[in-house]
Amino acid sequence: MSNTAHTDINQTIDHLFRHEAGKMVAVLTRLFGFPNIEQAEDIVQDTILRALESWRFGKIPENPRAWLYVTAKNKVIDIIRRQQVKHKIENEISFLLKSEYTLVPTVNEMFKEDEIKDSQLRMMFACCHPKFSTEAQITLILNTLCGLSVHEIADAFLSNEETIQKRLYRTREKLRKEKIPLDYPGSRAMPKRIDTVLKTLYLLFNEGYHSSHPEKLIREDLCEEAMRLTLLLTENRRTNQPQSFALLSLMCYQASRFDARIDENGSIVLLKEQDRNRWNHYLIQKGNEYLEFSASGDTMHEFHIEAAIASVHANAGTYEATDWKRILRLYDLLLSINFNPVVALNRCLVLGETDGYDVAIRELRKISELKDNCHYNVSLAEMYFKSGNKNFAKEFFSIALTQTKSRAEKKLLQEKILHCN
Amino acid sequence: MEKFIFLFRGPGPREMDRNSEAAQAEMQKWFNWIDAMNKKGTYVAGDPLQPVGKQVNGKKKAVTDGPFVEAKEMVGGYIIVNAKDINDAVEISKDCPIFDNDGKVEVRPIQKM
Questions:
Q1: Per-residue pLDDT tens over the stretch A115-165
Q2: How far away is chain A from the Cα of B90, in angstroms, using its nearest Cα?
Q3: Calpha distance A327→A346 (Å, rounded)
Q4: CA-CA to B72 of 20 to 30 Å: which in A61, A145, A272, B6?
Q5: B39: which chain A residues are within 8 Å (Cβ-Cβ)?
Q6: Residue A44, min C-alpha distance to chain B (Å)
Q7: CATH number of the domain bearing residue B55
């Protein structure tokens, strides 16, 4: 223990409990087996409380993480020795836990960096099991792997604690009943299963990126968690598929614009008006690197194309210098793989830049599925505005205004409407 | 400058909320307080005390468990600070997060030898 209170305390412990709680729950659940997940969580909880008791008078250990692990390990060993594990442990390592010779080394082994990551990945596959709804998958990931409390999850999704609590409870029941394994899928099922995991992480990221939540920090946290987990996938030889890299690349490009998207008054700044010096160039660099890594294998995944589109934007020096023709080709490619009205909407905006706003409006009018979508109406209004038809622009901005809850979006739309007069 | 000891009594983390988010927030408050003291050069040292102990009593040196009746009456830890005088020390103690949980701080000057 160090003698003086740290001056960089805030950095040392920022999110420490949350991140380490997620890791420890994954490790302990792997040791104890899924039926004992609540017991695993209790031990982790107790470890964190012990840390709080011990550290609060100004003494943080040199390595707080190691301190947490040692404390948790000792508890685990104690509980196994006293045979106080609630449900019988039935997994591939249970025999190692039975003998005093192998108990301590096995527990130690599980707390090594590689094994922690392994446990997190297994947990990720279990949380994203196809038997769960996407909603349940995301909630389970956030709670179990990311260490977010029910309160925080409810807050992030503008929901209430009771709803989230119930959802978690039901998901866990199912987890037990269906005997969902805490393991990697076999190599045949892997491609499909990994796609589910990636899709869920992508949704989690988007939830953070496009969230209508008034508070910025919560949104950034969701994006950060999604990126952390995707990074884990790219680091493991079983899960570092080309599409995992493509998704990580896409997330890096999107996240690079986080600071530039909102001005100091909390208003949204559109891509065209963003100060590109405020983009995070380290993340763009990372995005470029991961995009290169993703270029292997013979399958073109949607994430590849989406990352490529994001790459064109991120690497354009100015809005005017954007290679719109290339982006348009990428959108055409994306739509040919899988038609999605939102993608079609975005394609129309590009079309406005390459073929003129009237063409874009004509194409936009064809996407009738999105009539009740706020972004659709904003886009249509923008195109009318740019083509000089301010009356129509005003009409569609006004429709959009009724379709959003976000304060920042409302503010932006009200300004837009004023400009139409 | 004189040295003062703060003795803390109050509900410990276990008597309060049981989730890691609350624990993190609680710890943040303590660290912010200690950080601020550290920057001013007031903080000297601090330690937690384990929630167990014995009491050795009187001429017979009789050993008893306790004297602790309730967790919240126990000294949970101490911090030593530098302060101008007792009033200054009391002012410093007032920023302690333990008061948010209705705890107590005993402020005692350390006798100079």
A1: 999 999 999 999 999 899 988 999 999 999 988 888 888 887 778 899 999
A2: 17
A3: 10
A4: A61
A5: 7
A6: 9
A7: 3.30.70.1060
pTM of the model: 0.82
DSSP label at residue B112: P
> What tokens appear for A404 in the block?
């959003």
B58–chain A nearest CA distance, Å: 31
The amino acid occupying position A195 is D
Please tell me the number of Cα atoms within 13 Å of B106 on its side-chain side. 12
ipTM of the assembly? 0.83
Give the residue numbers spanning the domain of B87.
2-109
Please, which residues 102-161 of chain A have a Cβ atom closer than 8 Å to chain B? 147-152
| Alpha carbons A167 and A137: distance in angstroms, whole number | 10
Residue B101 pLDDT more than 60? yes
Question: How many A×B Cβ pairs under 8 Å?
Answer: 99
Considering only the beta carbons, identify the residue of B24, B32, B77 that sits closest to A17: B24
Which of A49, A53, A149 is the closest to B48 by Cβ?
Answer: A53
The total of structural domains in chain B comes to 1
Q: Worst-scoring range by mean pLDDT, A32-36, A393-397, B42-46, B84-88?
A: A32-36
Distance CA A402, CA A409 (A): 11
Domain boundaries, chain A: 1-111
> Would the CB atoms of B13 and A53 count as touching at under 8 Å?
yes
Which of A236, A230, A193 shows the shortest CA–CA distance to A208? Answer: A230
CA–CA distance, A22 with A120 (Å, rounded to integer): 8
Q: Residue A124: helix, strand or coil by DSSP?
A: helix
Give Dmax over CA atoms of chain A in angstroms.
81
